[in-house]
Amino acid sequence: MTDSPIDPTLLERLAEVSVRTGLNLQPGQELVLTAPVTALPLVRAITRAAYAAGASLVTPLLTDSEVTLARFETAGDETFDLAPGWLYSGMAEAFDRGAARMAIVGEDPMLLSEQDPAKVSRVGKATSTAYKPALEKISTFEINWTICAWPGESWAARMFPDLPTGDAQAKLADAIFSASRVNTDDPVAAWDEHNATLRARTRWLNEQRFSALHFRSPGTDLTVGLADDHEWHGGASEAQNGVVCNPNIPTEEVFTTPHAQRVDGTVCSTKPLSHQGSLIDGIEVTFKDGRIVEAKADKGGDILRELIATDEGAARLGEVALVPHSSPISQSGLLFYNTLFDENAACHIALGQCYSKCFLDGASLTAEQIAEKGGNSSLIHVDWMIGGAETDIDGITADGTRVPVFRAGEWA
Amino acid sequence: MTDSPIDPTLLERLAEVSVRTGLNLQPGQELVLTAPVTALPLVRAITRAAYAAGASLVTPLLTDSEVTLARFETAGDETFDLAPGWLYSGMAEAFDRGAARMAIVGEDPMLLSEQDPAKVSRVGKATSTAYKPALEKISTFEINWTICAWPGESWAARMFPDLPTGDAQAKLADAIFSASRVNTDDPVAAWDEHNATLRARTRWLNEQRFSALHFRSPGTDLTVGLADDHEWHGGASEAQNGVVCNPNIPTEEVFTTPHAQRVDGTVCSTKPLSHQGSLIDGIEVTFKDGRIVEAKADKGGDILRELIATDEGAARLGEVALVPHSSPISQSGLLFYNTLFDENAACHIALGQCYSKCFLDGASLTAEQIAEKGGNSSLIHVDWMIGGAETDIDGITADGTRVPVFRAGEWA
Ligand SMILES: [Zn+2]
Ligand SMILES: [Zn+2]
Ligand SMILES: [Zn+2]
Ligand SMILES: [Zn+2]
């Protein structure tokens, strides 16, 4: 008999929080759930929680890392521009009919690190292209959606390479449960309180109507223009179907849309970025008129430059987000190699697609109107961390007034 | 460390036979693969074999029995007429674009036996309705497809309830490997020889052009009229995309389309039928002018009658198949509770949908033309076993001549 290293009570609570607080799944609503097959215990708990919350139908789509690897290791070179478009168009159909969407992450973040980066990039681009119609319904918040995490064994082994498997998984599970605020007696109340704090921050930022943010820290001197009629969001968010959901479990950030043509200066990453199974570390990038004009990295520079070359929008920003250095995930001192966690440990920016949600009355805007206001568009959306203990941020208003926003990594 | 009760070499061979002989997967062809999540080792082996055979993309769709049970145990009563139509329409799109289809069976055949039969039947009907457009591309052989089996633990436990889990699984694995002809040094050669034998039988039957078959055995006196321009098939079959595949691994049957209006007499089942998780045993049914006018069973009579009431075609025959009593699966003496195996142990008939393939030039016929010739149409296709050691069959030609086909369970 083996004891699971994952506390079953906390796992049930994570399922409950993901369904109730994360999705806010409505009675009669269908649920499309993607997950790595190793996350089956969480998939089952979420399925039970979803039906208990009144789900009409729960359909898990499970992926397997060995199946993924078999492709890279065995398939013919001419096949790497293919993606299962039929599956993504099926998902888009489900969203059109009102289904909610949940994704469980938990794969080995370095799964593809030994594979040919050109093939990895071709598959990434084919997948993004095929998935775009479905993803747009998520990024424009047509439906309620959420992402949560499963403490996968291989993921845990990357984070804690010196620990035995069970201990590593137990440590990652604890970190996930704690960051997801389910290690308290009343997780739903904890989330309500947390959402109120984030709401206070976004309300203040929205009142300021800054036209730009100025980031300063060692190696960084970056002015990020904000899009016209930008709106700050964080925590709970109302989807176009009227459902208030928490799209990320956990979340610590408040974020908005930068102006794709008004970003200037140089910025250094403060944490490594795990992208499609490879690590990019020590990024230094220079922007001019919103576009990256120079990009290097101590590690993974080629992958960074391939990423930036994906399309026109991949060289511009689609998100800027503020997270204090005292955030619990930052204080854990852990590097998760996973954006869902690492982006909540530091201020960050994202290359690529913006969220139309982050505009005043964003749901009613056309793609052209969003572009006119400075919203970026791209096949990619890749977050990377630029904040730390020494980060200072000023808000700059239209008339040039400077307002302290962050000092030494904390809200000013 | 645990040794798997399943021989890895034979598992690799089963994967190879399923891809090469079962599907005859073509270089550049996509593969859609459905399987229970417990079959992951076979899914992975098939994925590797498929990419080695030149597959452009392999997409497994995995289902989990606990997720299925959670629905029956927790979902609201109003939700049981729903099916993931978006997923099935995605699959139909994949088939339209030329994907091949493989299904791995291996679930607990009694999974739903404790659930409310009305809910089970509603889900079955909703699924059949939603799946119909995709299934038609399979049943009309637009594409190459195949079904093979994984020795699932819970399935093995049903078959060998007195054995420890590992032993039961090992025994089921042996039975599957042997029936699938992969326990020989050259499985592909064994399949070629087996296909030649089945081809000789179908050639002889097609030359006879019988207008009916007359079955006699204890409790059975049944005349099964054959459809106009019916054609016998068995073993390898050419799909409309030109690919010769073996749709069932294993297979022992030769089969054709009965005339939906010309079936008369009484017939008893010779083996229990496992349908949607319930067992129907001791079936006795009387046909008049092709339609069931009386149906009873020693066990599961209600389920049988619900099944027959699915739609008009569910009370008529869509298949008649001949299997000698000496077939290896019959000689194993095992009851698998799974049609893929049990239908290959005995002569059988199927209620419901016919195969358009089983007509001369069937691919060019419209649904109306098939119906005119006597082909049946229905949401269901359920095989049940009527043959045994004492089965005699006569072929009856248009002028009334009788030709012995089976005597005492064997080819005459
Ligand atoms: Zn972010
Ligand atoms: Zn982001
Ligand atoms: Zn059959
Ligand atoms: Zn059949």
UniProtKB/TrEMBL annotation, chains A, B:
Query: Might you give the EC number(s) for this enzyme?
Result: 3.4.11.-
Swiss-Prot/TrEMBL cofactor(s): Zn(2+); Mg(2+); Co(2+)
Q: GO biological process annotations for this chain's record?
A: proteolysis
InterPro entries, per the entry:
M29_Exopeptidase, M29_N-terminal, Peptidase_M29
Q: What class of enzyme is it?
A: hydrolase
UniProt keyword annotations, A-Z: Aminopeptidase, Hydrolase, Metal-binding, Metalloprotease, Protease
| A GO molecular-function annotation | metal ion binding
Q: Pfam families under this entry?
A: Peptidase_M29
The similarity annotation says: Belongs to the peptidase M29 family.
Name of the protein in question: Aminopeptidase T
